[in-house]
Design a protein that fits this description.
This protein has helices spanning 3-22, 26-31, 40-43, 48-59, 65-70, 90-96, 101-113, 122-127, 131-143. By secondary structure, it is mainly alpha-helical. The longest helix has 20 residues, at 3-22.
Amino acid sequence: MDAKTTIKQKHQANFNKAINNSGVGGWYKMVQPTPVLIPWYCVIKFDRQKSGMICRLRFGHCHNRKRLYQIKLVESPNCLNCYSNEHETLEHIINQCPANRREREIMYNKLRKENWKTPPSLLEMLKTENSKTWTHLLNFIFAINRNL
């Protein structure tokens, strides 16, 4: 076995050990199931605000009501935009909330032009290294006046 293969296998083993043994990181493991040699932020160049938001989205540490409820910063995890008694999760905000329907359709139309099937899987969108896809998702988030 050559050195490059050995290093890659060791890197993969360390990544799996860290994710599997920590008890946390389940969301991130779904977004990034294997380690990469070139991280997304080296491929996709955004300003600090957008890069920070992408990190929070990928880590699952966003400012949505379900997350804020889990850390006891709000009294209810329910969405206040649509009053549907649905928990305000990332999936709800991006793909389900009726209050965001118009902005979502604009994003979906742009994603269709990039050959995405709509509605797209939230996890598939978070896994992508396509800067146009991230631009459409971030534009949607800014259009609904959210700082996730």
